[in-house]
Amino acid sequence: MPLSKLRARLSSVLSTRPELHGSVAYHRSYILLNSPAPPMSLPARFSTPMQKALQLQTARWGGMVNFAWTGMPGGSEDSTSVTAFSALGGRIHFPTLSLSNVDEVAAALMRHGTVPSRVLNNDGEIQMYVCTHGERDCRCGDMGGKVFQALRAELDRRLLADPDGSAKRVTLGEVSHVGGHKFAANLLVFPQGEWLGMLTPQDVPHVLDMILASERRPSSTVDAPICPEFWRGRMGLDKEEQLSLHAAQS
């Protein structure tokens, strides 16, 4: 990147940095429904009856529900699979969610998100999701799409160089609207629960290095932010806690 563009990029990042940090709404669990299509092709306002029903129940205790796509066969408006990450207990998966079992799934998600467990349900895998919901905001479709492709290419390059390396444990996907369009590209990292923003394709190798070097478990309330220069916040922390944690690491 030419020096002039690099300086302009740094200036842009620094000018919005105070807004970036602490910009994640408080939540205890992030709940991903297998999307019927890639977020890039979803309408600006997309929902399903079971997604609405699940959000209504989980929002009471701090659950966030969204749609994600990892290239696998998608769900439908009547049935899908669910993967959720909790600040307390790592990952939980339900192969089937429908209106007939939404109450049962919601109850299990509440236990996972609110009851501390001695055993973290985490196999060491890292899941990363880029917001690419272009119909909701063109910045997510444009920069989000570019960062997703850069991450895919970088992971493929590392896997080719070292098939058994740390990149093998990464699942990369796309996610629909997460909020904070002005911070595109937005990246969510699990099980750590980290939210990163203002990423560009040029940032990908550095950011990926930092993520792969981090602990593969939910981040605690005192763990240093991953990639502090791009850090929006963390699952399980409110705005003031996010700001305090970032300031303590500065």
Keywords:
250 residues; alpha+beta; Glutaredoxin; 2 domains; 6 helices; 20% strand; Thioredoxin-like_sf; Aim32/Apd1-like; Sucrase/ferredoxin-like-domain-containing protein
At a glance:
The protein has 250 residues and is of the alpha+beta class. Helix content is 34%, strand content 20%. The protein has six helices and nine strands.
Structural account:
It is a single chain. This protein is α+β, with helices and mostly antiparallel strands and 250 residues long. 34% of the residues lie in helices and 20% in strands. The chain has 2 domains: 29-114; 123-249, Glutaredoxin. It is built from 6 helices and 9 strands, in the order αβαβββαβαβββαβα. Strands 4-3-1-2-6-5-7-8-9 form a 9-stranded mixed β-sheet, with helices on both faces. Helix 2 (49-58) runs parallel beside helix 3 (102-114). The longest helix is centred in the middle third of the chain and has 24 residues, at 138-161. The chain is globular and about 45 Å long. Pfam families: Suc_Fer-like.
CATH-assigned fold name of the largest domain: Glutaredoxin
- Sum up the overall morphology in one term: globular
Instruction: Give the overall pLDDT as a whole number.
Output: 90
Q: What is the spatial order of strands in the main beta sheet?
A: 4-3-1-2-6-5-7-8-9
Cα-atom radius of gyration? 17 Å
Approximate helicity band = 25-40%
In percent terms, what proportion of residues is strand?
15-25%
Question: End-to-end span in angstroms?
Answer: 26 Å
Architecture of the largest domain in CATH? 3-Layer(aba) Sandwich
* CATH classification, class level of the largest domain: Alpha Beta
Structural class by secondary-structure content = alpha+beta
Biggest sheet architecture: 9 strands, mixed
Number of helices: 6
Number of domains: 2
User: So what's the oligomer here?
Assistant: single chain
